[in-house]
Amino acid sequence: MQQKHKAHTREEKLQALGRVIDVLDTLRVKCPWDAKQTNESLRPNTIEEVYELCEALINEDNSEIRKELGDVLLHVLFYAKIGEEKEAFDIADVCDSLAEKLIFRHPHIYGNVQADTAEKVTQNWEELKLREKGGNRSVLAGVPATLPALNKAYRIQEKAAHAGFDWKDAADVWAKMHEETGEFSVEAEKVRALRNNPAATPQELQEAQEHLEMETGDLFFTLVNVSRLYGVIPENALEKCNKKFIRRFNYIEECARKEGKHVKDLTLDQMEQYWQQAKHQPQE
Q1: Is 111 helix (H, G, I), strand (E, B) or coil?
Q2: Smallest Cα–Cα separation from 256: which of 279, 280, 284, 278?
Q3: CB-CB contact of 263 with 256 (8 Å)
Q4: What's the confidence (pLDDT) of residue 135?
Q5: Can you give the pLDDT at residue 133?
Q6: pTM, whole model, 2 decimals?
Q7: Cα separations in angstroms, 163 against 130, 184, 211, 223
Q8: Handedness of CA 169, 175, 178, 183 (dihedral sign)
Q9: Integer Rg of the chain from CA
Q10: Would you call 198 exposed, middle or buried from its count of C-beta atoms within 10 A (0-12, 13-18, 19+)?
């Protein structure tokens, strides 16, 4: 049985954070790589570190979560250090502004607002975010333009719902789902028919392909809505499905290697047989 971690005292936590800050200050001066880093050069690494943290979170690997949290924290401190060097802000300003924002957005804790459910807290949070911008900012303006499309769709729908633009009941969205599925099928059949028609022009095929792309987007967007209304985060669901597919496909490759073959040498029926076997493996 794994031994439970003993929480550090507040003083120990502050000391540990101070130690990291001291180490970073030293590296910024003495290490050639650390000394040359800028906001722009660090940004791609930051994105990578966040994705690695997300993978550890999905795997519920506490050892990796601790490691990846450290990597993300390093980037936070690094950006704050660069801000300090530019005489723009430092880590204290970052922490103070965060504390002030948290207090402002939790009036049910630090004020006299009532919020007895997580849903009500989220609704208040979104309303307060708009108030911070003077009330003139668009409801959807807070969704980062660079978010991956699946996450962006979820956040767009979530914010619109908090503004009152939402389905009355989760079951109601199914009619829309069936409608979009039908429209997608129609456009997909048009593309198939044109591809098999020697007389079809490139322009006809391109237009049909563009219509199919739009209907595909509508179908995905509606499926995200269905997921959201049933309490499923689509990004998490799809990533778990990705991992399941990789695990099962790796099993097919392993079986092929045991036969002295490459997976490409297997017939589709053989692949399907191994796929079904993969479903009953211990890791499943």
Answers
A1: coil
A2: 278
A3: yes
A4: 56
A5: 62
A6: 0.71
A7: 11, 29, 30, 20
A8: negative
A9: 26
A10: exposed
